[in-house]
Amino acid sequence: GQNIDQPTEMTATEGAIVQINCTYQTSGFNGLFWYQQHAGEAPTFLSYNVLDGLEEKGRFSSFLSRSKGYSYLLLKELQMKDSASYLCAVRGNNRLAFGKGNQVVVIP
Amino acid sequence: GAVVSQHPSRVICKSGTSVKIECRSLDFQATTMFWYRQFPKQSLMLMATSNEGSKATYEQGVEKDKFLINHASLTLSTLTVTSAHPEDSSFYICSARGGRGEFTDTQYFGPGTRLTVL
């Protein structure tokens, strides 16, 4: 099976940088995804890592270490609209399993 | 990114009725579609995976006779909740993954359907 662990909630100030961690265990690893989900809405795709290292996409960066079963999502220059839940999802044996998500609250 | 639509966005029905939810990939051909369910403050739980033209694969604990999935074409999958009961009230989200190009590895999500069974 798959096991994904994320911290549950964090608060950060507008303009700050926040790092959201995700650890996982899976067999047949074939990619790690980060999604953003606002309350009552479906997740939107943010990033995809399948090889070790850092993927940068504007204000968002995602890092993967396959040997450690670890990823993080880095949000820079936080904006109020970044207040959302951030979901880490791991694909193993062609199944995408989600963590519970990390709720980020951005305050002025 | 790819666009996945879902209809209806919200439905309220009486206990015992059946509800059909449609999921469409609008700008790519989705070889695989996924149906998820999400309860408040919970993670997305995969219900079933369907490949075009073949029977869906259901996750353990998901009743295939209650949640009927049809993936008749590369752009359309439907989920029918038969004889819905209040405990089936949830947020149902479909996801699609394409067969080639930029859409191959990434799952794109529809906007979700909020089902309330009275």
Produce a short descriptive summary.
Chain A is an all-beta fold and 108 residues long. Chain A has no helices and eleven strands.
Question: How would you explain this protein's 3D organization?
Answer:
- The complex is a heterodimer of chains A (about 110) and B (about 120).
- Chain A contains no helices and eleven strands.
- Chain A has about 110 residues and is an all-beta fold.
- In chain A, the strands form two sheets. In chain A, strands 2, 4, 5, 9, 10 and 11 form a six-stranded mixed beta sheet that branches. A five-stranded antiparallel beta sheet of chain A has the order 1-3-8-7-6, with no helix packed on it.
- The mean pLDDT of chain A is about 90.
- With about 120 residues, chain B is an all-beta fold.
- Chain B is about 0% helix and about 55% strand.
- Chain B has no helices and eleven strands.
- Chain B has strands at about 5, 10-15, 20-25, 30-40, 45-50, 55-60, 65-75, 75-80, 90-100, 110, 115.
- In chain B, strands 2, 4, 5, 6, 9, 10 and 11 form a seven-stranded mixed beta sheet that branches. In chain B, strands 1-3-8-7 form a four-stranded antiparallel beta sheet, with no helix packed on it.
- The interface between A and B is medium-sized, with 21 and 21 residues.
